[in-house]
Automatic annotation (TrEMBL):
UniProt keyword annotations, A-Z: Iron, Metal-binding, Monooxygenase, Oxidoreductase
Iron listed as a keyword: yes
Organism listed in the record: Bimuria novae-zelandiae CBS 107.79
PANTHER family: CYTOCHROME P450 MONOOXYGENASE ALNH-RELATED, P450, PUTATIVE (EUROFUNG)-RELATED-RELATED
Family matches, as Pfam families: p450
Record's protein name: Cytochrome P450
Amino acid sequence: MVVGKDRLPTFKDIPQLPTVRAVVKEGIRHRSIVAELGIARKLDQDDWHEEYFIPKGTILHSNFSAIFSDRTLYPDGSVYNPARWLGPSYPTYREPLSIYPNLTGFTSFGYGRRACPRTNFTDRTPTVMVARLAWAFNIKKQIDPVTRKELPLNIKYEPTPNPKPEPFSARFEVRDEQRAKMITKEKEKEDLKDPLFVEKR
């Protein structure tokens, strides 16, 4: 166990959390955070791609949907599968797991001179957020009030080029009493750092 019950995961724990990093990276791959056709680029000079001539002034889009379904890298590309970043049998696996998987050079954040300069921030922040949620809660499907059985998870997405999931129901249950106390303690500590909260008091 990387983190016990007496503290929340922090940025210092990230090297020891490859599974959490894999969950984050696979989520971004499976449902890209940018439009499926990427951000348009305009060629400033004539170019060739394999046998195709592309004249200067052409507007190009990166087909992220196709890139993240490339069977060479993602044999089961339509499946959400964090294990692809953790198992040596997958072409996406890299070592050491104290560093990989990460989002550096990942297509979702661009490439070449147009790559996102804040990939490191984006890499670290969701990882800690997911780690803290997993540390604190058992996250389960909602219960049907009539049958008392779990309802199937049916996540729908906005009908836009850059879709985000529509609201859906889930149950968040604190894992144990000790973690519940730790969450309350951390909230109180953070409240004291918030100038607006202090002013209200």
